[in-house]
Amino acid sequence: MKATEVPEIAGAYLFEPTPYADERGFFCRTFDADVVRSVGLDPDAFVQDSLSRSVRGVVRGLHLRSGEGEAKLVRCSYGKVFDVVVDLRADSPTYRNRAFFDLSGETQTTLYIPAGCAHGFQALTETADTSYRIDRPHDPAEDVTIAFDDPELAIPWPLPVTSVSQRDREAPSLAEVLKHGEK
């Protein structure tokens, strides 16, 4: 497994496993504490794992947490997603930068997203399972949502958006979130 820094988002990393494939399919390590530690992250900091299943065209996000924020490891374990990260850390050298990734069950690449960054994705396959490993127990009172279709962010969702949650559909713009200090 190798770790690669994401230049558009300070402190973000891609963890790319080395799949071993044969006639049965493949095997790969999707988490390695030593590799995570090698880039200055504490592998023991992650306290909760979650999984979402989405159908083609679904958009989830853009989500982040207020207060101390939430760092997370995100991986598409089955199918394929178009993944989006927006840096909203005012003190970051990459503040307000966006980065886009294709994550898939074929590669099992994991994306590390630092606390203070908004995250979302769109399912590109009929079924897409996305796994999350987060560094704090989830507290719904700290949830912050930004409009997935905010013109300022101009995220190039690759497919027509077929479905979003009510919360995502009613989310405020980035400007509104920053103005009210919800982040």
UniProtKB/TrEMBL annotation:
Stated EC number for the protein is 5.1.3.13
Keyword Isomerase annotated:
yes
Tell me the GO molecular function terms. dTDP-4-dehydrorhamnose 3,5-epimerase activity
Keyword Isomerase: yes or no? yes
Residues spanning the membrane? none
Pathway in which the depicted protein is active: Carbohydrate biosynthesis; dTDP-L-rhamnose biosynthesis
The signal peptide here is none
Mind telling me which SUPFAM superfamilies this protein's record contains?
RmlC-like cupins
Q: Which reaction does it catalyse?
A: dTDP-4-dehydro-6-deoxy-alpha-D-glucose = dTDP-4-dehydro-beta-L-rhamnose
Annotated keywords: Isomerase
Role description = Catalyzes the epimerization of the C3' and C5'positions of dTDP-6-deoxy-D-xylo-4-hexulose, forming dTDP-6-deoxy-L-lyxo-4-hexulose.
Task: Provide the assembly information.
Answer: Homodimer.
The UniProt similarity line reads: Belongs to the dTDP-4-dehydrorhamnose 3,5-epimerase family.
Kindly provide the name given to this protein in its UniProt entry.
dTDP-4-dehydrorhamnose 3,5-epimerase
Q: Which organism is it from?
A: Streptomyces litmocidini
